[in-house]
């Protein structure tokens, strides 16, 4: 109201303060200095109308400061301006939401994704004729590279172009031209199908590899598929290399994302079991059992249990135990059974009992051959042929001595003291 009062008191002041209002209100004459009684009503009505018009104009100016700084009057307001303002508001809101939600890591990934997309010089895929030419160039280059590797393995040096030409029965200039065209074809096909590689790689983010690594692996699969592409079958190159790109990305994830590598078959099985586990957890509102997961996936319960064990992430033995500041997992995890004191005592007593039986039941030669055959003295167990060479007997004779000695030790009264050490 203070603004409106000031405007009414001095209309010339508001006209000079608001340049955009000079022309719409120029048809109104300023109030006279001395007004006769018959003209007082007209002046007051003009002042009221000016007050309403200027108040509306002031409202418009205030609203325009909120909506982007544009002032539109009756003659200027149309659907195009309204749509433009709405579009600008949506962009500002979207940018504000992204700046509030996206963290630094995700922002870097987004910039990297945009940078990779913008690197594509050529938009769209190649024509069938270009696909056939590039595939043929890559096949010729692969043939020369195979010959290069074969010759390099033989002479342990990289062969020269002249040696390659001689081995392939080609001219040196032709070899150089094929290699040059092969490099150009690789660059061209990577540029043309970069968008396809990126679209596939983005589906496998947050799997342990960065987006840049996934794109590199997908590009390798793209080149591998382009070398094996046969245009005479009638398929498009993008349809054929799609599976090569996907295969290369999945292989890289299975080989490089875990400290302990899982075979590709087990990696796929673990992912399948994890997906079924999440679905059942959301459906049942509780952790599912191994039997329920096995029933859904139509596999054995032992396979599901083994899949959960293989899918666990490895942990460090130096990790501190919760609630124990000075203890680590390495200090509290029990070792193998051989290091347990009770087992060590039992093993020593068993050796003593066996020595007593060897001395009382068997002959000296039989006891010696049994010790060699079973490695009872801490040595490596030996076969009948090896023992025969040591004691200068035939292999068959050594076998007979072993059978005789074991038959003597199998008597009930002899074996009875050893039952206490049986596992």
From TrEMBL:
Domain of life: Eukaryota
Key words, A-Z: DNA-binding, Sigma factor, Transcription, Transcription regulation
PROSITE patterns to which the protein is assigned, alphabetical: SIGMA70_1
Cross-referenced CDD domains: Sigma70_r4
GO biological process, alphabetically ordered: cellular response to light stimulus; DNA-templated transcription initiation
Molecular functions (GO terms): DNA binding; sigma factor activity
Record region (Disordered): 22-42, 77-97
Domain spans labelled RNA polymerase sigma-70: 213-226
Record flagged with keyword Transcription: yes
Annotated Basic residues bias: 83-95
Classification via Gene3D superfamilies: RNA Polymerase Primary Sigma Factor, Winged helix-like DNA-binding domain superfamily/Winged helix DNA-binding domain
Family listed: Belongs to the sigma-70 factor family.
Protein name as catalogued: RNA polymerase sigma-70 domain-containing protein
High-level lineage: Eukaryota, Viridiplantae, Streptophyta, Embryophyta, Tracheophyta
